[in-house]
Design brief:
Elements (H helix, E strand, L loop, with lengths): L8 H23 L8 H13 L3 H13 L7 H13 L3 H13 L8 H17 L5
Length: about 130
């Protein structure tokens, strides 16, 4: 995952594109019978159902959707909550995202270098100690 500093328009566009690609990959199996690409709101709804069922990967992708406003209203508070839930379940990318958010004061957070380091260390341990999240 590439981290971009700041909340510029270019970063938002790149994040939104990455979110949509990720969400479309998650729902590919459900939509492969249809030639139509699912609407972002449909994808976000499916991610929400999977996240509510406990999938850390769905939690992470739903957080990305809230951060970018892709298929759901943009909400830093919702994004932060879903990133934290995914991180609690051992999702390394969620931990890395939280590390950067704490470092640069994104998602409504006050910059906190110690919290950033904590999440970065947890992400490193999660990457080395467990298989990739599903």
């Amino acid at each position: 995952m590439v981290f971009m500093r700041g909340d510029g328009a270019g970063a938002r566009v790149a994040l939104a594109a990455a979110v949509l690609v990720g969400m479309m990959a998650v729902t590919f199996a459900a939509t492969r019978r249809s030639a139509a690409t699912p609407e972002p709101a449909v994808v976000a709804h499916r991610l929400d159902m999977a996240a509510q069922a406990g999938s850390p990967q769905a939690m992470f992708l739903l957080a990305n959707a809230y951060r970018a406003g892709a298929g759901v209203p943009q909400s830093n508070a919702q994004a932060l909550a879903w990133y934290e839930r995914a991180a609690e379940r051992g999702h390394p990318s969620a931990m890395q995202t939280l590390a950067m958010a704490h470092l640069y004061g994104e998602l409504g957070l006050v910059p906190d270098e110690l919290e950033s380091r904590r999440y970065a260390m947890e992400a490193e341990h999660a990457l080395h100690d467990s298989p990739p999240p599903r």
